[in-house]
């Protein structure tokens, strides 16, 4: 291997792209005023804030007044769920979500459950797609909110959000989608999806960490979950991180402009990786739908080895990948997403996520394919598991 790091963990975080870094640096230096101040420095920051809001809105087919800036995907998810639950508590206490959501949604749902809300977690089929019939069966007069992610962060599998949006709209139920992984990878339009709330995060689209947004369709019943000043039309108090927001908007604009080209390129690289793996290594399984999927994510289980060991061995060779498992107090739990798809725990433990990005090349993929069979064989021998 060369000293070059082959970074295949873009679903966890993307590097800041050069143009975005430039925007961030310039805004840090020049736009230090508080966007709520009425003097010139404040108004310059305010102008950048509103220009950024327009760009973010345009990238998802929204109106600028429907964008609220937050500290990232986690806060956007919490504002969507808790804010709606708080606003509609008197109308009903039932919320529907899926069993494969990111923990930003799942753990928020758990906390709402502990406060007396009733939750339904809809299962997925073996390819990781939510079962719409099960969702229909769970609907009740007290259902106030449905939250289903647009693309799963572990498998890339796309969920039937526009179909669910229609179901929700017909019944007057608020619908939220966590589009953190989908935005910038596939076309996302809030009206095509028919959603009321949509979460975004900057660091998945080559923007900075700690910045995100929640789209809130005009007229959606929602209350703030943080209290303070009147920023973001009272929906999210706190002095806005104008440089971070400007960089987020620039990143999203670039991702949107280049979407088709990047999508095609990543899909080819992802397919090259999967074909190479399946030709060179026995007893592998691709997790998630190969058709209904993001262009950049490939989740593979390697029988007989733990994903964590494979990750660490690849890291020693300069290849960064991830597992879906949550490492809690020294013990690794198999991914809740793979388990929800009916994958046996032992196979789920061998799950590795390769998530590609704009800087990856064919030769990097070929280098991975060169070393991976050797590493997998060695780990299988060490594990001594009979296959
Ligand atoms: C689907 C999904 N939702 C939410 C988040 C959380 O976003 P953030 O890291 O900006 O809080 C992530 C991050 O991995 C994600 O993949």
Describe what you observe in this structure:
- It is a single chain.
- The protein has 387 residues and is α/β, with parallel strands linked by helices.
- The protein has two domains: 6-15 and 259-383, Aspartate Aminotransferase, domain 1, CATH 3.90.1150; 18-257, Aspartate Aminotransferase, domain 2, CATH 3.40.640.
- The protein contains 13 helices and 14 strands.
- The protein has a seven-stranded mixed sheet, with helices on both faces. Strands 9-10-14 form a three-stranded antiparallel sheet. Strands 1-11 form a two-stranded parallel sheet.
- Helix 4 links the parallel strand 3 (94-98) and strand 4.
- Helix 1 runs antiparallel to helix 8.
- It is globular and about 65 Å long.
- The mean pLDDT is 96.
- Bound molecules: pyridoxal-5'-phosphate (PLP).
- Pyridoxal-5'-phosphate binds next to helix 3.
Looking at CATH, the homologous superfamily of the largest domain is: Type I PLP-dependent aspartate aminotransferase-like (Major domain)
Strand content: 15-25%
Q: Compute the gyration radius: what is it?
A: 21 Å
The ordered string of helix (H) and strand (E) elements is EHHEHEHEHEHEHEEHHEEHEEEHHEH
N-end to C-end Cα span: 29 Å
Q: Give me the CATH architecture of the largest domain, please.
A: 3-Layer(aba) Sandwich
Calculate the mean pLDDT score and round it: 96
Spatial order of the strands forming the largest sheet: 2-8-7-6-5-3-4
Gross morphology is: globular
Low-confidence stretches: none
At CATH level 3, the topology of the largest domain is Aspartate Aminotransferase, domain 2
Bound compounds, please?
pyridoxal-5'-phosphate
Helix content: 40-55%
Overall number of structural domains: 2
CATH class of the largest domain: Alpha Beta
Number of strands: 14
Structural class call reads: alpha/beta
Count of individual helical segments? 13
* Main pleated-sheet profile: 7 strands, mixed
